[in-house]
Amino acid sequence: MTLLVSWVGIDTHGIASAYIAADSRVSWGDIGHFDHGRKVFAFRSSPDILGYCGDVLFPTMVLSQMTEMADRGLLFSAQAPCKERFKAIKEKLVQQFDKYPRMVEGITSGILQVLHISRFSIDNPKFECRLIEWSRKSGWSLKQRIMPSKSGILFVLGSGAKEFNENFDRYSKGPGHGTSRSIFHCFCDTLFNIKDENCGGAPQLVGIYRKPDSAAITFGIIKDKQRYFLGAQIDNNVYFRDVEWRNDLFELCDGQTMKKFVHAQSQPDHLRRGSHRQLPGASP
Question: What CA dihedral angle connects 174, 177, 179 and 184, to 10 degrees?
Answer without folding.
Answer: 50
